[in-house]
Amino acid sequence: MAKSKVKHGFRLTAEDVVFNIINYTIFILFALICLFPFYYLFINTISDNALVGAGRIQLLPKGIHFNNYIGLTRINGLGTSFIVSVARTVIGTVLMVGASALVGYLVTKQEMWGRKFWYRFLVITMYFNAGLVPWYMNMSMLGLTNNFLAYIIPGIISPYNIILVKTYIESIPAELEESASIDGAGYFRIFRCIIFPLCKPILATIAIFGAVGHWNSFTDSLILMSGKPELFTLQHRLYTYMNEATNLAAMIQQGGSDIGNLATQASMNMRPIKFTVAMATVIPILLVYPFMSKYFEKGIMLGAVKG
User: Fold this and answer.
1) What's the pTM?
2) Residues of 94-124 as b/e, b for ≥16 C-beta within 10 angstroms?
3) What is the spatial distance between Cα 144 and Cα 150, in angstroms, rounded to a whole number?
4) How far apart are CA 137 and CA 157, in angstroms?
5) pLDDT (tens digit, 9 = 90+) per residue, 61-80?
6) 10 Å Cβ neighbour count for 85?
């Protein structure tokens, strides 16, 4: 069998080289397929709106400008909505990660009172949903309508994330806790000084889940915050803006043949508006994810070893 070269102390055969080339080619193509939708969105937001509306932007931008993004900054209340979304994402994610870490640690303790009951109770909630109307009635009775806490409190306890953390903690050698316990450390000191630092990979993983969920959510804002526009999230504000633009285009189109050209222009301009709104909601998460991807990969694998 032909020999090729030595890499990291191992001699690669010709078959190994061919296999690596095929592997890299497939993964590069897969990466390009995943990245292309974002690239396509971006080039359509910075290209000439008339060309975008006509569907003539495919691979390269034409007539580059940034007026679409500048136009978004003129939306009434956009700055406030951005602050609300950032505050919701940061506060909600931090509290969710802290609660998931603590509860996940507690349900690993055999001596915890009613441990099996509480753990099973948490798991059961993953499979039952009362529906939208009972949920709204419950939130209303709790005083969480038109209240910023409606964004935070319901998401603090996440059964799925607790299961991931519990499984990860069970993979940590028990000797670490035992040695700390012998030295006189209590449960919370062990959790704070040993367990929590060792759980960074899985906590980063659920932090990504939580942050993406908080950032992208607008249904709760749409249903619960109708009386307080200042509490609209960024996604809700952009959704409202896009609907208003769509309705305006529809009204123009129904105005008769005298304004046919204006109707056509309005419908064509909806494409860059939709692309720009989509890009504006995606960019913040795209900027954060690369810094946490290494923890995400390790955490999601280790957290799924045992059930």
Assistant:
1) 0.76
2) ebbbebbbbbbbbbbeeeeeeeeeebeebee
3) 5
4) 20
5) 888 888 888 877 777 787 88
6) 25
